[in-house]
Amino acid sequence: MKIVITCIHENNQFPLLTYSGTGKTYASAMRELGFQRVLFLVHRNQIAKQAKKSFRKVFSGQVSMGLVTGKYQEYDKDFIFATIQTLSKEENLHRYEKNTFDAIVIDEAHHSAANSYKKVLDYFEPKLWLGMTATPDKRDDNLEGRNIYEIFNHQIAYEIRLQDAMEEDLLCPFHYFGITDLDIIADAGKSSEEKVENFRYLTSEERVENVMKQAEYFGYSGDRVKGLIFCSRIDEAKELSKKFNAKGWRTLVLSGSDSEEARAAAIERLAGEESEDALDYIISVDIFSEGVDVPEINQVIMLRPTESPIVFIQQLGRGLRKAENKEYVVVLDFIGNYRNNFMIPIALSGDRSYNKDNIRRYVTEGGRVIPGASTIHFDEISRKRIFQAIDNANFSDIKLIRENYTNLKNKLGHIPALADFDKYGEMDVLRIFDNNSLGSYYKFLVKYEKEYTIRLSEDEEKVIEFISKKLASGKRIHELELLKRTLQYRHGIIGRLRKRLSETYQCEMDEHCTENVINMMTNEFPTSAAKKTYAQCVFLKKEQDDYGISDVYGKMLGNPEFCAILKELVDFGISRYKVNYSHHYQDTNLVLYQKYTYEDACRLLNWERNEVPLNIGGYKYDKKTKTFPIFINYDKQDDISDTTKYEDHFVAENRLIAISKSGRSMDSEDVQNFLNATERGIDVPLFVRKNKDDKISKEFYYLGRVIATGNAKQFVMPNTDKTAVEIEWELETPVREDIYQYIVNE
């Protein structure tokens, strides 16, 4: 709260962004602010009453409090809790002077783009406007006057997300169960016939019985169930309610068309003690996604596809309020054959990298993602459905990139810098670099941002693409700091780089590392075919016993706009390095459990030249550096040939059985190098990936060094006449449990 108060003193008008359920009303009621007259503006009677109750707890009897709603007209109190519908009427608004209130708090501030709110915003002149919302991002943010961030001058006072709120113990623990819905439940088609058919499946007897069975099996915390059910459409909600009631549940449908009185009465029946007219469940399509506070809810049932991570978290949040005699909330998510199933792990994890491997891991890790006592479980079929959705999704899709970019621009009020993507948790900008039609943030802005007017030459553009794709992920600091030197100096670049690395990073460059870095920056590292792609990317030229800036690159540095883009990109890469790649494993340039491509491994092992994956296969020995990396695809594809279907497998977190290439015997040179690696001074790093399905990232987990135990045997590969050797390896560092479970479990 101290952070919020500091922000309030520093700004005049801004939203307080907070995760739904963390006591938004309490935050605004902090007595330290010393306001004498306060207006709390809401869009529903029920919320006004709840807010008043919250303020009472903080202020006791120190100030007078009143309601201004359709039913109450207590205009002369110190603290007023008003509905927008009542206050925005001319005759009510003009009961007050423009400067009557010291502070005006707008709850669920994403509504403030509506005309009724604008009327109030334009009329009053308080010392402070404070907007509070858990959902500032809306679909119409790009329309003039509809952007909530813009209305509040793009001033973000404080932001707390689900993971942070759980860590701070601000919310009730939850137990989430991803449950298989019927096979026939899928995305609705476009034609009216398909929609009718879809409705029939959604409300079938079989589905009703399955939902009731699962709800009773997984249970709830407390004396009786007090549940919320979210559906896709109102006709589905009504039909399901009818069928649930016929089978003994007590349910009621609420929608936006119901009156405040009807909603309040329904909530009272749900939240109250057992009685003749008590409700077990309220079924809703949308009204419970925001702003209705029913702390007693102890079970949430989701019977709809996940439209977006934001909506998912909103609906989950309805059950996360703390309440007396409520230890936890049970969340049952019925997962059909939906295209957007991949959004579930994204929402639960809070991860915005849109990296397929990360998302798969979140599905298998379950409760590790969420701090505290909460747990996450998926049954086998729902897990497969999510994996299928992940496999089919294209996270470098232009539409997805543009949507995330627009959200961030709307939030900031200007074209985002690269660092803004990390700071505000939007999509990982590396997804832009991965997109083959883009390759750089500069190219994205040129193509899709009308306000962006900078234009580089073709060669300059290619250099920016090279740095974006090859270096900006921050997997090694050397090239990034070298580029930083070139922005300040023309000569003695390698010497200056050595000094910088030694003084700032306690990192020394041996001859192999020096040669590798120079080759990277003179286009000598790529394979012959790849050299043509970045032929312009020669940054250095030889000068006596050091290197200076090449003539071509030197000319580019004469363009201030190019230099500014380059500097931003380099600073972004250095920032990524410090966060993700600075904690090296022993004396390597690699970080345990980080992910690397074949090319990354060749570069960070300081090979003179890159090797194409086909030439590496499962492993390759580099004589110059005496490094012998092993690359394992743990899940083998069914359609590969028997001679390459090696049964590599872990037998424990620190033990691995790996098979040599086919056609090898105990006497083969590569087998002998493996078995005698320690004596011969050969370094054997291990890289493992779950599968090869991810066509975009193609990355392996680095699992440290391995040493052959001496247990090895030659055998004939099944269905072939080729021999191979099975070698047992010991890992210097046992694999961390979550990574291990993810790799070995199907």
Automatic annotation (TrEMBL):
Origin: domain of life: Bacteria
| A cellular component term, taken from the record's GO annotations | cytosol
**UniProt xrefs under InterPro entries:** DUF3427 (IPR021835), DUF8090 (IPR058403), Helicase/UvrB_N (IPR006935), Helicase_ATP-bd (IPR014001), Helicase_C-like (IPR001650), Helicase_Restrict-Modif_Enz (IPR050742), P-loop_NTPase (IPR027417)
Pfam families reported in the protein's UniProt record: DUF3427, DUF8090, Helicase_C, ResIII
Helicase ATP-binding domain residues: 5-154
- Taking every annotated instance into account, which residue ranges of this chain make up the domain Helicase C-terminal? 203-367
Q: Name one GO molecular function term.
A: DNA binding
User: Which protein is depicted?
Assistant: DUF3427 domain-containing protein
Q: Which organism is it from?
A: Dorea formicigenerans
Lineage of the source organism? Bacteria, Bacillati, Bacillota, Clostridia, Lachnospirales
